[in-house]
Fold this protein.
Amino acid sequence: MTTTPPNPADQCSNLALRKAARYLGATYDKALAPVGLRATQFSILQQLSAHGEMTITSLADVIAMDRTTMASNLKPLAREGLVTVESSPTDRRARIVAITPEGLSRMNEALPLWKDVQARFEEAFGAEDAARLCTSLAAVLDTGFTPWAE
């Protein structure tokens, strides 16, 4: 009797995380599409709404994204007038991002759609399991890796 050796990819944390992220990300993107936002854009607007204006670097840190990718994600939001991106008056090298009244309005329009998909996920996955998942994923950020360090 021959047995198939285990596939290392089946135990890869990165692959499992990316598969789940693509699946859930597409679900949230679909839910937010009626208001013209993608899940990442909604998250950016939420963070700016909660924290006020921030540097691109600070916003990237809060969302766990490299600065260059954050800058790319901000471009369509700025084109639509949902955020402003301006040079810092105290440090010309830093760029300050702020949510605009239109951005706040769009985020508030998207909020019920986000809440609905969030509730549907928690119902399907289990509210306690969803809370544990968020806690576990947050803990990943404290494992000591420095993926964006220069």
